[in-house]
Amino acid sequence: MAYRRDYVVTLRIFEPLVVHSELQDRQVEDNRSRIEEQISHDADKRLISLPPSPVADSFRRTPIFLPASQTSDGVDRFCPAQEDIRGWEALESLAEHTSKATLDIVAPKSARRRAASRRAEWLQDAKDTRIFTRVSAWDVPPSWWLFFSLSEDQIITEETDEGLRVLIRTDILAASARMEWASETIADTSKVVDMVEQTSVLAEWIDTFDMNSILELDLGGMSDVLWPSDAAELVDSWVTALSNNDSESAVSAFQKYAAGWEQLNLYARSS
């Protein structure tokens, strides 16, 4: 059994199979658990390898399916497993924020050269370079909550052998409209630079996908910690107050959210 990475929170886009001709003959199944297990086993092997191997193998030929039986419109959808692509991005970020001595230990030059070469090949050959999956550790970034309305969206709670797992799903048109409104409001009224940048990037990102896609927030192994939560409501209240020029309510909502975020930071450090 693979090592459990309970701290991972995932945002996924499931796009309809009908817009991808190369997948038309694929058998659609509920394969999420199997693919996640394969990815975790690969990560385990790389973790103990010498020299270290920081970037995952390609899993893009084995997408995660969202079968029609699990959707209200009866459409089969998929989300490609892009562990290698996200690994390249993480390695690039690590190189920007880590000393050379530490970087050479975590990701030797040979591994960085190999990753750069494979990334260059992918960028040259790939017809579709979109990133379908975003990952966070320990918490849901506040900007992600702006995609969702918990009173309207589908919330799935599952009791598994590992514990509670919560999935929140919404159609991409609703998610895009919410983020566009939030992004414009924050850009016009907020001084929180990180949120201005994050919401702008997310608004552009989601609009690159088919309009019949589904956006899913998977709380994973953090479900017991993050659910139920008033975080989504507080972030929405903050943006709504900004749009109404109600600075007092905006500050109050932001401070309440920040207090909860500090508690999660303590939880992450203690773990």
From TrEMBL:
Pfam families (UniProt xref): DUF8083 (PF26312)
Domain of life of the source: Bacteria
InterPro entries in UniProt: DUF8083 (IPR058396)
Domain DUF8083 span(s) in chain numbering: 7-265
Protein's name according to its UniProt entry: DUF8083 domain-containing protein
Taxonomic source organism: Brevibacterium linens
